[in-house]
Write a structure and sequence with these properties.
The complex is a heterodimer of chains A (about 425) and B (about 80). Chain A is α+β, with helices and mostly antiparallel strands and about 425 residues long. Chain A has 3 domains: about 180 residues, Reverse transcriptase/Diguanylate cyclase domain (Alpha-Beta Plaits); about 60 residues, MutS, DNA mismatch repair protein, domain I (3-Layer(aba) Sandwich), CATH 3.40.1170; about 170 residues, Dna Ligase, domain 1 (2-Layer Sandwich). Chain A is built from 14 helices and 15 strands. By secondary structure, chain B is mainly beta. The termini of chain B are close together. In chain B, a hairpin with a 4-residue loop joins strand 6 and strand 7. In chain B, strands 1-7-6-5-4-3-2 form a 7-stranded antiparallel sheet, with no helix packed on it. The radius of gyration of chain B is 12 Å and the shape is globular. Chain B has one domain. At the A-B interface, helix 1, helix 4 and helix 13 of A face strand 4 and strand 5 of B.
Chain lengths: ~425, ~80
């Protein structure tokens, strides 16, 4: 075993030992809808992103008990729960409650990291005198959450010496309860934990581990460094070693470091219907580009990597990207023009006729973001004029809502409005600019 | 299911610890006494701040919306049991 990786936290006095909690709200969206409507309580509820959609994005505890799971197709869910009540998502409600939770957590500890819309890491190392044990912290949190969000709202709490253990603990905890990973039960927990349960181990890595016969986390400790490096390379072999010991991985450790600004912005949308109509796809790219660029401009960021991706009904991906040399963009028309050029390059033999396959999902992204203040200004009059036009449009849209002033390209098009995502990838933006 | 209504309503309530708590409202010439405020959330429509209350009155769930700029109340939706 690699001794230099072991953290000597066990040698520290109890009061100084790192202590983390992860709070995971149970069936968050569905529970909040049940809180808002007593007639939904105790019944199987499925949340759809919008009316008419076919994917259950959140299932209530009652629906889960019948086998319905998040991400399941509505048809399948109805086979398991014929009386499933479907409710369109109200992201304003969910995000408002997330902000309420954030304010509760910051009252409990100064070090809070929102992990997603319904999960937060709380570092408790400096608060040990306030909360002598896991039970007392759980009870205080439960009281505050139920006072503010309502008595129907419950959560699972995991506690441990680092974020990895806290996250794992929350997954082992039953709803409305807590599970603490301690040095005494750590090995037993790791021996019972499947590799795919670990935050940071994705589907592909789990599959590769399984092919080598590694199904449970503790088995990693029986592989030597050379073996892990041979199969997973220098980076992942080290990460797997840390995981095998229940230590914090690079991915989770990064969360403790403050990020100056977002590195990229993106926006994607599953279409209401599959289509070969190239004009519709172009309009959707424009719609999403406007949302994405508005976000970047509000954060005063500009990017030098732009790209888009399309997914057709066969699961095939189409897309492209371009890297701009010494040029940074955030104005919608500039970014769209770049994306449209790529789009036309890919489909040149088909346009302006129908696309070769039916497109069901569209996504756009702007990467390599830097603050506007770090970029030399363009003094060309045309460029300055355009910047002024966009500044004026942004002011109107900030006041009256995005797409109040928009391009004629979106004429006769059902505009997709901005929305918050469940994993809260843009939390820096959402916490600063919305609500 | 929720039934969209989007009609103006008159709301009476009390201020408690600096926050307004609706107590009753009048809709279509009927007075509804609020039994329970199930949830409250704020959101923005452009720069207009709005607050939405989900209330239980007369054994029905009503979604009442307060427009902070206009200082007006709308009954947005009611829950109808199938």
């Amino acid at each position: 075993m690699d001794r230099e990786l072991a953290t000597p936290s066990e040698t520290l006095p109890e009061a100084l030992r790192p202590w983390f909690a992860l709070i995971d709200m149970n069936s968050y969206f569905a529970t909040l809808e049940q809180q808002a409507n007593p007639y939904l309580r105790g019944k199987p509820v499925g949340i759809l992103k919008e009316s008419g959609r076919s994917c259950v994005i959140s299932a209530s505890k009652e629906a889960k008990a019948l086998g319905v799971h998040t991400g399941e197709y509505l048809g399948e869910a109805r086979k398991k729960a014929p009386h499933l009540i479907t409710i369109p998502a109200d992201f304003d409600r969910y995000f408002h409650n997330t902000k309420q939770l954030h304010s509760i957590f910051t009252e409990l500890s100064p070090d809070v990291d929102l992990f997603s819309l319904d999960e937060a890491f709380i570092e408790l190392t400096s608060c040990r005198t306030l909360y002598p044990d896991a039970r007392s912290f759980f009870e205080v949190t439960q009281k505050r959450i139920q006072e503010k969000l309502g008595s129907w709202v419950t959560f699972s709490m995991g506690l441990g010496a680092n974020r990895l253990q806290a996250k794992l603990g929350s997954e082992l905890s039953v709803p409305n309860s807590y599970f603490e990973i301690t040095p005494a039960n750590l090995d037993a927990v790791l021996a019972e934990t499947k590799v795919e349960q670990i935050c940071g181990i994705g589907f592909r890595l789990a599959k590769r581990l399984q092919l080598l016969g590694i199904t449970h986390v503790y088995q990693l400790n029986f592989c030597d460094d050379e073996y892990l490096t041979k199969h997973f390379g220098p980076f992942w072999s080290r990460q797997l070693r840390l995981i095998g010991q229940g230590q914090e991985t690079h991915f989770l450790d990064l969360r403790s470091q403050a990020q100056e600004h977002m590195k990229s912005v993106s926006r994607s949308k599953t279409l209401f219907f599959a289509t070969r109509d190239s004009k519709y796809v172009e309009q959707m790219i424009y719609n999403l580009t406007e949302d994405m660029c508005f976000k970047a401009r509000r954060m005063k960021l500009v990017g030098c990597d732009v790209g888009f991706s399309l997914r057709d009904t066969n699961g095939q991906h189409w897309g492209g990207r371009t890297h701009l040399r010494q040029r940074w963009v955030s104005q919608t028309n500039e970014v769209f023009s770049l994306l449209n050029t790529i789009f036309h390059d890919i489909y040149q033999s088909y346009l302006p006729r129908e696309l070769p396959s039916k497109i069901i999902k569209v996504g756009v992204w702007l990467g390599g973001l830097r603050p506007c203040s770090e970029i030399p200004l363009c003094w060309l009059p045309e460029s300055q004029k355009q910047a002024q036009v966009f500044a004026a449009i942004d002011k109107v849209n900030e006041k009256h809502g995005l797409y109040t002033v928009t391009s004629g390209k979106l004429l006769n098009f059902r505009i997709v409005k901005p929305e918050v995502t469940g994993y809260l990838g843009d939390k820096t933006y959402q916490m600063q600019f919305t609500g | 299911m929720y039934q969209p209504i989007h009609e103006s309503v008159a709301v009476a309530g009390v201020y408690e610890q600096g926050r307004f708590r609706p107590v009753k409202f009048r809709w279509q010439k009927r007075l509804f006494q609020i039994q329970e405020i199930c949830s409250v959330h704020d959101f923005r429509d452009g720069t207009v701040q709005k607050r939405r209350f989900s209330v239980l009155a007369n054994q029905t769930v009503f979604l009442l919306e307060f427009d902070r700029r206009q200082e007006s109340w709308m009954l947005e939706e009611i829950w109808i049991e199938n």
